[in-house]
Amino acid sequence: MSQMSPTRRGWLVVGASTIALIVSVNALILTPYGVMMDPIAKDFGWTRAAVSNGLSIYALAAAIVMPFAGRLLDGLGIRKVGIPSVLLTALSMIGLAYCPPNQGLWYGLMAFLGVVSVGQGGLTYLKVASEWIDRNRGLAVGLVGTGIAVGQAVAPAFTELLMTTFGGWRPVFIGLAVLLVVLALPPLLFVVREPDAAERFELGLVATPSSRELPGLETGEAIRTRQFWILLLTTLVLGCAAPGALVHMVPLMTDQGISPAQAVAALSAAGLSAMVGRLIGGFLVDRFYAPLVAAVVFVLPALGFWFLSGHTHVPGLPLVGAILVGMAMGGESDLVSYMTSRYLGMKRFGLIFGIYYALLALGYAIGPFVFAQSYSATGNYDMAFWIFGIGLVVCALGGLTMGRYRYPAGIAIPVADDPRDAFEQIPEAVLVDNPVLGAHHHGRHGVEEPANPDSPALEDTRDPV
């Protein structure tokens, strides 16, 4: 049996990562928690805001450790981080299933869950997919992200089924813990891994087989770019807006007289639209300017908020609003992941994207809290809709100022130290049919000798921005 090529193996890793992300933290915690919010509050005798605070504590804990998790992924690799995360997350969820009505203990378990679950999320699998796939990276991260979307789509119905079958919310956590181990552990044990040095060289990601690092900016260099800060602000605003609406979507709709079954169906529709949004977005960013695609995606929930508010009094529009919010929820991490790799590179991707993913996690804390406070203060969610709706429009416009990619597809191949050294020459198969690099890059890698071998290679004077 012939050995699998790196390209085919890369897409196999993408497929396995998609399966593992069906049980991402979004499907395990964020979506089911919204369905269980009122039953937990009733069982424990707490307010809806008190239950929502548990999710905020979980997200805050995850946000604090996320950059460190990204650094661990850069240093240790996905398996040494992902496998312990899966096992500890499952144990933590079983602990929640048996938790008594004690707020301190509940919040403590939610905080611990936030810490240990960071390895079973988009940060881990989007990073490994980006390391395998370059030219069609947008499609790759979109496919991986559909795992999150599928999980979000089926989680409400699965949660409702377990609650109806077993008569309460506690069996839901046990069922989700079992599902996590079944779906996430086998891919991590047998398929999902980073490419080795030889595979990176064959994929054209590095200049020599001995190259240890992928091209990109150091963290300090990235922080000094405007693109870093635009992505940071956008991530924070969208990370608050979409999860906040998603967590409160079921009670928001039932407050308008919509039946619980219809509200859960709308939540599932939001999950399905997230899957569609990821696939379409991934396809488009490989072919069009990513910030323009992102601007459209980020404005969608602002319109969705108006439909969800109920002020239109048009039957069916809340469902449309849920779909629009879901599409944005599907695009936030994928688009930010893609733009991080194109503007800041892959060298310190784990740490840099870990910072962004921390903001997404922080959004899970801030967003539901702001929506809960809006409801507590006014009896509706209009104030939260206005705050986040305006913020999303501002971020969409800001993203259009990011400029050209620093690391478009193919340009990530670094210049060889000595183009005359045969050992450092990149195979012709890697460089042919590359409209981004062209003959200029061919010559710099020794495929075409300079006219004067003693003269230094020409510098690329093109504006990287």
UniProtKB/TrEMBL annotation:
Residue ranges of the region described as Disordered: 442-465
Give the subcellular location.
Answer: Cell membrane
Specify the Major facilitator superfamily (MFS) profile domain's residue ranges: 12-407
Q: What is this protein called?
A: Nitrate/nitrite transporter NarK
Which Pfam families has this protein been placed in? MFS_1 (PF07690)
Q: Does the keyword Cytoplasm apply?
A: no
The terms describing its cellular component in GO are: plasma membrane
Which GO molecular function, any one, fits this protein according to its record?
A: transmembrane transporter activity
TM stretches of this protein:
51-69, 81-98, 104-126, 138-159, 171-192, 228-249, 261-281, 288-308, 314-337, 349-371, 383-402
Q: What PANTHER family does the annotation carry? A: EG:103B4.3 PROTEIN-RELATED, MONOCARBOXYLATE TRANSPORTER
Where do the coiled-coil regions begin and end? Answer: none
The membrane topology noted for this protein in its Swiss-Prot or TrEMBL record is: Multi-pass membrane protein
Give the record's keywords alphabetically. Membrane, Transmembrane, Transmembrane helix
This protein's superkingdom?
A: Bacteria
